[in-house]
Amino acid sequence: MPRKRKKTDNGGMRGDEWLNTYSDCITLLLTFFILLYSMSTVDEAKLRQLSKAFNEIMVGKVGDSVLKYNLYNGEVPVIGGEEEGELEGDVIVPSSHSMYDEIKRFSVANNLDEVVEITEDERGIILQLKDSILFESGKSNLKSDSKEILNKLSKLIKEMPNSIVIEGHTDNVPINTSEYKNNWELSTARALSVVEYFISDKGLNPSRFSASGYGEYKPLVSNTTIENKSKNRRVNILIVAEGKER
């Protein structure tokens, strides 16, 4: 039976009848959202990450990790947010398609794009440095001015969960010195020097690293010119793709 509309003192109808419909609508919406929430699954890891980010924003704290968007100084993260990766505990694991782009942005932001060449293959992302940036000819001791570059790269590596392989490569010019009998030994010693710097000087986790020396046997181009030989003398920092760990 429909409700009777109350009359005002002058015989007209009251103007607040819409409140009944409005309250019914709000009640239905509230019931609907409660139902949705009851059927949802709360990701505790994501909730912790979100809560931490909000707390830092509210107190005006600048993000201290390259994993975060820095809202106060305009910098972008090295590794993207949840839309481009997955959360495992409190660590953001980047998806393979986003990691290359984010590392490129880090390289540009840190003025590394002229000394570090970034490529990608089926194993992961490769940061390639010419040997002349890191070493004197025929030597495996790091040049002092190369450490500024390695310091920047260590910040990138520190914020990533991936395994790291350091690879040494030479050209095909034979070497036979009191230190190294051949290019195998030289390339391996150079790779070890980089690994030791990341571990001993920068305190990175040793279990993440391995070193390989390939001598002249994996050239980028044929060793037919001085320029090509220069390209082949290099050290690669391989950031191993998810699922490709040895």
UniProtKB/TrEMBL annotation:
PROSITE patterns: OMPA_2. Its main location: membrane. Residues 122-243 form the OmpA-like domain. InterPro entries: Bact_OuterMem_StrucFunc (IPR050330), MotB-like_N_dom (IPR025713), OMP_bac (IPR006664), OmpA-like (IPR006665), OmpA-like_sf (IPR036737). Pfam families: MotB_plug, OmpA. It comes from the Bacteria. It is found in: Cell membrane; Cell outer membrane. It is a single-pass membrane protein. One of its GO terms (cellular component) is plasma membrane. The chain crosses the membrane at residues 21-39. CDD domains: OmpA_C-like (cd07185). Signal peptide: none annotated. Keywords: Cell membrane, Cell outer membrane, Membrane, Transmembrane, Transmembrane helix. The keyword DNA repair does not apply. PANTHER family: LIPOPROTEIN YIAD-RELATED (PTHR30329:SF21), STATOR ELEMENT OF FLAGELLAR MOTOR COMPLEX (PTHR30329). Belongs to the MotB family. This is OmpA-like domain-containing protein. The lineage of its organism: Bacteria, Bacillati, Bacillota, Clostridia, Eubacteriales.
